[in-house]
């Protein structure tokens, strides 16, 4: 993944944490007596009856500020962390991937990330009451980082679970779709022999309408598709593909 894509994921993870802490519940306390055998036990229960929510536009701006300032301070290997990266770098995996979901991020790694976080970030979180004090930032950001790391290092899904509602080239959503092997099956052996891609990428697919599927196979042979055009994003960089998509996207017919 690129750092731009990873930033979007980090922002969502951070947003969830900030939104959860931005809701300030009002409560009432209710006391009642429970009889436990011969003893009377007093139980005090807090009931949340409403929440005061921050202005959504202001909150969105605040989240953008905290996310961008924090992410920009990350080490480069954390910004570009991905499933592919950890497959090739055991040290990187050891650094960022916990042994299991209940294991926190290594404290030395966490401290090295937090120590370069801009003071404006920690002070802002403290001033707005999202953390008790600037010194509490590591405890706040640790679960956010774990969620981010888990998201960007998750392996590719089975192709059958990636089906889209619309063609990934022309974006028509009313037409049947078929799956296009982004690395054509006929050259898988050569791909592995030449080391063009990792094995886990071989079954990547794009969901295309029949017209766009045929167009992709007309634009390049299987080897070129495997070497150069192995993601939808790369395919859409081509001017001829964009021109095709603009044209065919306007081709409609009545249902029979």
Automatic annotation (TrEMBL):
It comes from the Eukaryota. PANTHER family: HNH DOMAIN-CONTAINING PROTEIN, TUDOR DOMAIN-CONTAINING PROTEIN. This is HNH domain-containing protein. It comes from Penicillium frequentans.
């Amino acid at each position: 993944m690129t750092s731009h894509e990873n930033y979007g994921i980090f922002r969502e993870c951070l947003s969830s944490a900030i939104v959860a802490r931005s809701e300030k519940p009002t409560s009432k306390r209710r006391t009642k007596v429970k009889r436990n055998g011969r003893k009377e036990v007093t139980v005090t229960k807090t009931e949340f009856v409403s929440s005061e929510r921050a202005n959504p536009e202001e909150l969105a701006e605040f989240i953008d500020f905290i996310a961008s300032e924090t992410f920009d301070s990350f080490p480069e290997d954390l910004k570009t962390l991905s499933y592919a990266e950890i497959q090739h770098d055991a040290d990187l995996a050891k650094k960022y991937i916990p042994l299991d979901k209940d294991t926190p991020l290594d404290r030395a790694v966490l401290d090295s990330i937090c120590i370069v976080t801009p003071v404006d970030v920690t002070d802002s979180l403290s001033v707005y009451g999202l953390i008790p004090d600037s010194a509490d930032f590591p405890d706040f950001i640790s679960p956010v980082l774990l969620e981010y790391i888990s998201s960007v290092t998750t392996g590719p899904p089975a192709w059958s679970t990636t089906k889209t509602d619309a063609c990934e080239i022309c974006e028509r959503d009313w037409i049947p779709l078929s799956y296009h092997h982004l690395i054509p099956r006929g050259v898988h052996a050569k791909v592995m022999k030449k080391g063009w891609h990792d094995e886990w990428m071989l079954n990547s697919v794009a969901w295309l309408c029949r017209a766009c599927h045929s167009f992709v196979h007309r634009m390049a042979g299987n080897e070129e598709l495997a070497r150069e055009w192995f993601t939808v994003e790369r395919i859409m960089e081509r001017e001829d593909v964009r021109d095709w998509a603009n044209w065919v996207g306007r081709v409609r017919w009545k249902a029979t």
